[in-house]
Write a structure and sequence with these properties.
By secondary structure, the chain is mainly alpha-helical. It contains 10 helices and 3 strands. The chain has a 3-stranded antiparallel beta sheet with strand order 1-3-2. Helix 1 packs across helix 3, helix 4 packs across helix 7 and helix 7 runs antiparallel to helix 8. The longest helix is centred in the middle third of the chain and has 25 residues. The radius of gyration is 19 Å and the shape is globular. The chain starts with 12 loop residues before the first helix and ends in a 13-residue tail after the last helix. The C terminus is likely disordered.
């Protein structure tokens, strides 16, 4: 069962409810095969100390984003992408981040590239494999930083929406120690290519790195459809 954070009274109630629910969904381990995807409106309203009317408004907003599915007479469910949808989204992400790496070679300052290097150097191959949950968050920061270094606002906006939906996917994928081990080495090569201002190599390395993630998921994950079993949110 997920726990919702308290509302911040300094923002509008609607935005706060939406933000708390969205964060909880993105932090939930929805790609665990045993995870329940059903959301209990009554329980969530009680957690937040609100009526169900503003809660339902926030859920409708999340449905429009593709994060939840509201089923008539059945309830609300976190929407878990199919294997095909996940691989397609990763393919799109590979194209976006590849362009971001190319632009970073042209626009990022030396200090910004050094900051990227420091993120990539936080973990060795062994420590990443030993601390998978922590490394997963650092990995997400690494890829977001490459997007930021593109200095392209529209690219950042499109990527952020896509990356939010892929966040639980990346988190689960990096529980595989072999994947984490490989990821550290590939990150180091990406940083060196960007530091050398080699736009073609950087773009190719980033694209291939992400495509390999898609290949790994295609070959090792089963199609995760349905509403799951176990405890409700």
């Amino acid at each position: 069962m997920i726990t919702l954070k308290p509302l911040n009274l300094h923002s509008t109630l609607k935005d706060q409810i939406y933000g708390v629910l969205r964060e909880a969904i993105l932090e939930a381990d929805v790609y665990d095969e045993s995870a329940s995807l059903k959301m209990d409106e009554r329980h969530m309203a009680a957690q937040l100390g609100i009526s169900r009317t503003p809660l339902r408004e926030a859920l409708t907003r999340l449905e429009n984003e593709g994060l939840v599915e509201i089923q008539a007479r059945k309830g609300v469910y976190v929407k878990r992408l199919s294997l095909k949808e996940i691989v397609e989204m990763i393919t799109v992400w590979a194209a976006l981040e590849s362009m971001a790496a190319r632009l970073a070679c042209e626009k990022a300052s030396d200090d910004e590239i050094e900051a990227l290097r420091m993120i990539g150097a936080r973990y060795t191959m062994d420590s990443a494999a030993a601390r998978l949950n922590e490394y997963s968050e650092s990995n997400i920061e690494f890829h977001r930083t490459i997007i930021h270094l593109s200095k392209c606002t529209r690219l950042q906006e499109i990527s952020e929406d896509l990356f939010s939906q892929l966040r639980p996917v990346r988190r689960r994928a990096l529980r595989d120690t072999k994947r984490a081990h490989t990821s550290v080495g590939e990150h180091a090569k990406i940083v060196e290519a960007i530091a050398a201002r080699d736009a073609v190599l950087a773009a190719d390395l980033v694209r291939d790195h992400t495509i390999r993630l898609g290949d790994y998921i295609r070959n090792t994950w089963i199609a995760l459809d349905g509403n799951g079993k176990g405890q409700d949110f």
